[in-house]
Structure formats: structure tokens, C-alpha cells
Amino acid sequence: MHTLRPATLDDVDFLVDVAIEATRAQGRLSPEAAEPGWREGFADVSREQITEDPTGTSVIEVDGRPVGRLRVARHPGSVELCGIQLDPSVQGRGIGTAIIRQLQQEAAGRGVPLDLGVERDNPDARRLYDRLGFLQYAEDDREHKLRWRHDIWTTDIATTYDTPGVGMFSDDVLGPTTERLAELAGDGRALELAIGTGRVAVPLAARGVPVSGIELSPPMVEQLRTKADEATIPVTIGDMSAVRVPGEFTLVYLVFNTISNLLTQEEQVACFRNAARHLTPGGHFVIELWVPELRRLPPGLPATVGIADPGYILLDTYDVLHQHVTSHHFHFTADSSEARLTRTPHRYIWPAELDLMAQLAGFTLESRHADWSGTEFTADSPSHVSVYRLL
Question: What's the mean pLDDT in 322-340?
């Protein structure tokens, strides 16, 4: 059994030694690592990290003996695994896997992703991360960027997500939505980010618009496949802020607040840029999004009640420092006094911030309405449909 303790400045020499020995055991030690200058540089970095973030660097111990180094950075919108190095004498015992699973539990508890980078020339580590459910979302010349998210959209959620003819699945909602999207797509193709079970994509395709999708949750796509096959609505599994779909589109769209599922401003800007990469010049990016309800927050309290029905209560808790909202969904059954609780994390975006994100990606705001029918957007509108055009 391993334990973790915060590293101190007295541990710096050990941290340098274990990093070198672990890398040497992998056959990936650079010639520079044996030089005194490299060692001193790594030691200086370790001292700086320990001083600036005392909880970020840990010493891994087994039976009271230091055997490894763990470096973790905790950001408002993510947990980042910066590195694990284990002494060769304890490698292969499952310690690294156990630590990663602990970090996954921490990230899931916070409702944020767990991120890491793995060197291109380290296939053994890549296989481990693949096995633990990490997906690649970006890369550079040196490493692949991987991300793990707690799967909110499980099979149980996916199979009960659709409410045919009711709520957001009603004709009163889907009719104006698909009519407006079809108008913006024109004679071109449409790409839906976070396509889900095909609530909008299926009726839009039925109007004659070729639709493709990006979706992070395989169970949601499985439900979509009960309505349309891959040839009719092709879907790419992955992160909507990074995944590239073949071809060009005249329309990219995000409905029902889904851009707020990206929990950092950086990811949300990346989503705009990814939309721009898929669009032909003059193409449109459409976002349906709620307006943050900070004016409804009771003084001194962090939560608002969004819905209070006999079988369902929605409670939103706000972290105004980081622009985060966690939606708590309480579902009640008639024959029980207990509730089933699910949580969904979001990063809320003001319309003005959304417009700035669009500008950074090469878009200009073409229109903004309070709904899909073209109702005027006002200061009291609870949500908006914003249409951006690629310059």
C-alpha cells in the first residue's frame, strides 16, 4: 500500500534522483540528464514548485520509504496530472494506476476533467492511459494531450433522456429550431456539436439537411443509432472543442446550453475556433444558451431554485469567482420518500463574453434573439439564440 505526503525542500535531491532513475528504467533518459547543470536546473524547478504550491508536489512512500514523485496542478476547471515517477524497484505493482484512479475520483467529485500529457515516445504509458479511459484531445511536437471525464451521460441517463413529444422534444420547440437551422444551412451541410441522442439532428436531417455530429458520450450515440444509422447521420466520438470532422460545412450549431459543459474559458474559446475550422467562409455558428441568473441569487446565498415540480427539483449552486454553476437534479418517485440525485457542472458565459470569444475565432455577431422564433432579446430574456458569421 502506498501513501502520499506533501514534498518539502528537504526532498528535492530525492525528487531529482527518482525522476532520473524512473526515466532511465524506461530507456528514455536524455544525455543531458547526467550533467550537473541539468540536475541543478531540475532541482531549482522543484524548489520553485514546492514553494509556490506546497500541495502540488507529493512524495510517494511504501512502508515509510520514499519511492516516487507525484506532481498535480489543480485548476478551477480541471485537475492536471503533471507527472508520476516511480523508483524501478516498485514499478509494476499498480501504484501508478492506483494514484491515477484516486485523481479520477477527485476530478469526478469536483465535476471537472483530469488532464495529462504523454510523450510521443512513451507507448507503455499511453497504453495505460488508454486503458484507464483517457481520450486524446490535442497534441504538439513532443506529446499527446489526454483527458478523462467522469461520464455523466451514462447508459442509464442516455436511455431515459428522450421525452418524445414533451418538453424540449415537443413539436412546438423542435419546429422553430429546425426551421431556423435549415434556413441557415442553405444548400450546405450542418455539423452539430454535442449531438447527443439526435433530438435536433434527426428532424433537421428529415428536412433534407445533411447532418454530421461530434459527441463525447458513446451511450448517447447508441440511442441516436436507434433513430438513424451512421450513413444517415455520421458521428465522431470526441471533445467538441478539439475533434476535427472531415469536410466543410455551411452551419455549425450548439443547442440547449451545451457550450457551458466546457468548464474553462480556454476550452470555450477553443470550441469557437474548432467551429471556424469546419466552416466555409460566410458560414454560420449558432449557439443556444441561457443567461446567468445572478440577479435571482438570494443575498448571501449561493443557490437558486430553477424548477420545483412534484417529481423533480432543480437547484443551481453558483461559484461566481470562477463562473461555475453546478445543477443538482433531484428526481422523486411517487412510491418513495427518497430522491435520485444527479449533478451537471457548467461554466456560465455572459453574452458579451460570448461575443468576444467569437471575435477571437474570426466571427461577427449577425443576430441575437430570445428564442428560435425570433422574439426580441431584452435584458429580461432568460436565454438567447446567437448567430455568428465567419468573416
Answer: 84
